[in-house]
């Protein structure tokens, strides 16, 4: 083990960090990079930053507790609209030939946002299922430039999402989105685009409207979103407004059965972890407390969230690698937020009206840490995977370039109406407006699904 120091490249956030670096891991990285183009880029990136790590971080990493205490995953129920505190309520593929392991496939995740006068594929009028928190136009967002950009990969042409082709591809099949409210955000976008061809019937929702299921009758296609913010077993103690009533109990080595029990029902899976791991939580392994993140309890040792994230992802990937099912799994990487000059609970805002260009912004510390854990665990799983198809849905970078795509104050209906102008309204700089940049995740998803 050696100690390295590196600085985050985000201008306001020059936070020096000390990290313990496991040299064995660098070895693994150098062995793997020949096999995978994507990973080569990441490896180079890692080397450039002079930064690699394995299991343990020194406790000196300063991570803002920005997600702690909020309530990602909560249904935007009517009462939530008045909660003052920010709530994280939470075929024409490029190459028609199937690509095999090791063959070169266009990297659809590297590119830029280019102006496109076409505009969104749905509006608040044509899609009636946009959740209030993300219905920016309806909520009175004044600018609309953010709707006129298209994701354009550098090395290939990304064919536009075609709902007809997608639904035909999904005939007699089922797909589940598993994760937190960002996954629900994504599925909402998909529903809106698909509604041009077929309006889905909602056939299930849980009590809190966090997990839902839709059925497309004329295509015999079942679409689900399954709320599982940690993917592993978690006891979450929050009231209906998302206020914490005690630390989360997170079992790092046990799957969340809410999705694992119905895993066999699906042909396609889009799964993601995320920012819930930054919350205060007691960590368990073998049903025994191993430590706690952020508990400030002298009787339980502090464990950094990245340990928990890695352990939980490993539990998930272990499940995948042992599966012989012919199921397509897309593993989505972390979604960056764009709070500026503060965090979600300290007046941070996101009022930009256009995308960043490559080089204008860097993935910030916390997201970088999570993404690196994701990429490493994904790569480890890829080495031993059997029947199941596992691919990376690496939307971190392309999403990072869209600070303009969040609701900001327009997470609620006309936030400034009837209020003193200096009254602070809560901003959402994490979820995405619908329509908005997240719609393009579907173009990329379709491209990946149809290319095999
Ligand atoms: C908002 O959060 C603050 C602390 O972050 C808390 O004191 C306050 O009670 C919260 N207000 C509501 C309405 O939840
Ligand atoms: C697909 O593969 C076939 C034979 O393997 C080849 O002739 C054809 O050019 C390929 N098409 C594309 C688009 O790569
Ligand atoms: C819906 O969206 C349009 C723009 O597409 C906007 O002009 C309108 O105000 C929005 N609101 C409602 C309630 O439809
Ligand atoms: C869907 O299932 C029905 C009934 O089993 C079958 O007749 C049909 O061919 C299937 N369609 C596709 C595209 O698999
Ligand atoms: C619908 O799809 C399922 C497989 O997912 C198949 O068993 C069933 O026969 C299909 N039904 C019809 C009416 O095509
Ligand atoms: C949990 O149990 C396994 C096997 O029984 C053991 O290898 C592992 O070290 C245990 N983990 C902890 C944190 O006690
Ligand atoms: C830690 O344990 C001691 C002894 O059991 C107890 O007196 C103390 O209240 C505990 N501290 C906390 C914060 O739980
Ligand atoms: C964003 O808000 C800040 C602070 O209120 C302001 O200084 C800045 O000019 C705003 N930028 C845009 C593009 O509106």
UniProtKB/TrEMBL annotation:
GO terms for molecular function: O-acetyltransferase activity. Keywords: Membrane, Signal-anchor, Transmembrane, Transmembrane helix. The chain crosses the membrane at residues 38-57. One of its GO terms (cellular component) is Golgi apparatus. Its main location: membrane. Belongs to the PC-esterase family. TBL subfamily. This is Trichome birefringence-like N-terminal domain-containing protein.
């Amino acid at each position: 083990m050696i100690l390295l120091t590196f600085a985050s490249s985000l201008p306001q956030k020059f936070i020096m960090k000390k990290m313990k670096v496991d040299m064995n891991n660098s070895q693994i990285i150098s062995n793997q990079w020949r096999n995978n183009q994507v990973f080569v880029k990441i490896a180079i990136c890692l080397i450039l930053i002079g930064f690699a790590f394995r299991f343990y971080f020194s406790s000196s990493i300063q991570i803002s507790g920005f997600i702690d205490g909020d309530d990602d995953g909560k249904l935007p129920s009517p009462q939530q609209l008045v909660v003052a505190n920010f709530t994280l309520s939470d075929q024409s593929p490029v190459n028609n030939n199937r690509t095999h392991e090791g063959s070169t496939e266009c990297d659809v995740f590297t590119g830029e946002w280019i102006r496109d006068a076409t505009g969104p594929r749905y509006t608040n009028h044509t899609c009636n299922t946009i959740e209030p928190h993300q219905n920016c136009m309806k909520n009175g967002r004044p600018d609309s430039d953010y709707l006129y950009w298209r994701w354009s990969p550098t090395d290939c042409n990304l064919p536009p999402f075609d709902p007809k082709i997608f639904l035909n591809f999904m005939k007699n099949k089922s797909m589940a989105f598993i994760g937190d409210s960002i996954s629900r955000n994504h599925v909402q976008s998909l529903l809106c685009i698909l509604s041009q061809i077929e309006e889905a019937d909602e056939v299930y929702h849980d009590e809190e409207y966090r997990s839902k299921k839709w059925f497309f009758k004329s295509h015999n296609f079942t679409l689900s979103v399954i709320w599982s913010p940690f993917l592993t077993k978690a006891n979450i103690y929050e009231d209906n407004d998302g206020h914490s009533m005690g630390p989360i109990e997170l079992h790092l080595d046990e799957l969340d059965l809410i999705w694992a029990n119905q895993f066999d029902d699906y042909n396609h899976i889009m799964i993601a972890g995320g920012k819930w791991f930054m919350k205060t939580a007691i960590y368990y392994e073998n049903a025994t407390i191993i430590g706690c993140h952020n508990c400030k309890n002298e009787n339980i040792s502090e464990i950094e969230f990245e340990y928990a994230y890695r352990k939980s992802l490993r539990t998930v990937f272990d499940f995948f690698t042992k599966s012989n099912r012919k199921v397509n799994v897309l593993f989505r990487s972390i979604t960056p937020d764009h709070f500026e000059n503060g965090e979600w609970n300290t007046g941070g805002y996101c009022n930009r009206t256009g995308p960043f260009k490559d080089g204008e912004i860097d993935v910030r510390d916390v997201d970088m840490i999570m993404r690196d854990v994701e990429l490493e665990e994904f790569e480890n799983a890829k080495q031993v995977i059997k029947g199941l198809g596992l691919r990376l849905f690496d939307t971190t970078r392309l999403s990072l370039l869209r600070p303009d795509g969040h609701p900001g104050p327009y997470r609620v209906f006309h936030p400034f109406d009837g209020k003193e102008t200096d009254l602070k309204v809560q901003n959402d700089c994490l979820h995405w407006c619908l329509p908005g940049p997240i719609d393009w995740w579907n173009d990329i998803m379709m491209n990946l699904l149809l290319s095999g």
